[in-house]
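so the lab meeting is tmrw and i was supposed to have these ready like two days ago... anyway. pasting both below. for each one the top line is the aa sequence and the line under it is the C-alpha cells. i havent really looked at them closely yet so no promises
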Amino acid sequence: MGTNFYSLELKAIDNLTLEHIDCLCPILGAWQGGLIVEHDGKSRAVGASEINHNLFPTEAVLIKGNPLKVITKRIKMNGRSLRWLIE
C-alpha cells in the first residue's frame, strides 16, 4: 500500500539453488519482514530469513517509480460470474 510503484535493483543468491540473481524487479508487496518481487514472471520472496524467503539479498536499492492510479468502475454482476469479469 502506498502512493507509488516501487522496484528493487537487486543482487541476491537463491537459497535453494545458490544461483546468483541480478535484476531490476518490480515490488509486489511485503512478506515476513522482507519483500515479494517479480523475477522471470514468478513471485519471489526477498529477505534475510532462509525459512521465509527464496532470495537472500547481497545488494539492494529501492527505486521509487510512477504514482499509482486507482480506477473504480461500477458493474452490475446480476447473473454473471467472476470469470466474466476477468474476461
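ok protien two:
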Amino acid sequence: MATLTDIAQIILLMQTAFPNYHPEQATPDVLYQFLQDLPSDNLKAAVFATCAQLGRVFAPSVGEIREAATRLLMRALNVPSEFAAWEEVCKMPKGMIRKRIEVDAKGEMVTNENGAVMISVEQLKWSHALVEKTASLMGWPDFPSEDESLDRAHFFQAYRAEVSRMMEAAGELPLVRDYVETMRRNAMLPFGQELKKLAERLEK
C-alpha cells in the first residue's frame, strides 16, 4: 500500500510537471488519506498516466488519480472490451465444448489404427467472469437470438454496466466501503432481533 514517502514522491512529480501546482502544507496528509489504499506501483503509474495526458495543464485531482489507478487495474486483469466480449459470446458453443478434426503438419486428417478420423474435444472456458456473468444475465445459451443487432446493443449496455460496477467497487475508498458495510449491518439488526424473537416464540 502507498506510504507517506510515496505521496511525497508524487507531489514532487506533479510540482515538476506542473509549475502552477502549489500544494498546501496539509496536502501530503490529505492525499495520504485518499490514496493510501492503492498499491505503491499502481499509484505511481496512475499519476504518470494522468500527468502525461495530452492537453493537461493542471495537476490531476484525487478522483482522476483513483480513476486512472482503477483503469490500470482493469487492464492488468485483462477485462475484455465490449466488442471482444460480444464476439466471444457469439462464438461460444452451446455446450462450451469444441470438437476439431485433428490434422498433421501437412494439413492431412489424422486417423487411428482402425482408420477412423481422430477428433479432439476441448472444454472451453469464458475469458473473464464479467463475460460469463453478462452472458448469463442475457440468457445464454439461448442468447443471442435471430435479431443479432438488437441483442448486441442490449449486451453492450449490460456489459458496460457490469464493468462500471466492477470499476466502482475496485476504486471505492476502504473508508467508504467500511461505512456502507457498517450501515448495512446496523440496518439488519432490528430484522435479526425480530427473527430471534420469532424463533423463541416457536420454540415455546
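from a quick look at the 2nd one: The chain has three domains: 4-76, 82-171, 173-204. The chain has a mean pLDDT of 87. will dig more after coffe
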